[in-house]
Write a structure and sequence with these properties.
single chain, alpha+beta, 2 domains, 5 helices
Length: 114
């Protein structure tokens, strides 16, 4: 079954025949990652995009770097906090309070106190 599709080039667009038989299906891992991005950013993941591997890949590339709409997204992970507290106990000091509100500050504190 051949399907006509439009391809854009530097000189304009023209129709070509493509064979759907060779179209690669979307992988479960790819779809799961796209859904995580959709939930994190609030972007809608169109149904048509979920059916085409190349379209889904382009969608992921477009939206993966958008910051999260979650106000706690920049907070350090529980593993980061636990590790920092373990370092602080060992060094008999405290983790600065501002580090608990910013993952990059926490990371820098951990790196400088290892």
């Amino acid at each position: 079954m051949l399907q006509s599709s439009s391809v854009e080039t530097d000189k304009g667009s023209h129709n070509i025949q493509s064979n759907d038989y060779h179209q690669m299906p979307v992988t479960e891992k790819q779809l799961s990652f796209a859904r995580q991005i959709s939930q994190r950013t609030g972007q809608v993941l169109p149904w048509e995009t979920q059916q085409d591997r190349q379209a889904l890949s382009r969608w992921i590339d477009q939206y993966r770097e958008i910051p999260s709409t979650n106000k706690f997204a920049n907070y350090p992970s529980s593993k980061q906090v636990a590790f920092a507290e373990r370092i602080a106990r060992y060094k008999r000091t405290e983790v600065p309070h501002e580090c608990f509100r910013d993952r990059s500050l926490m990371s820098n504190w951990i790196d400088s106190n290892r």
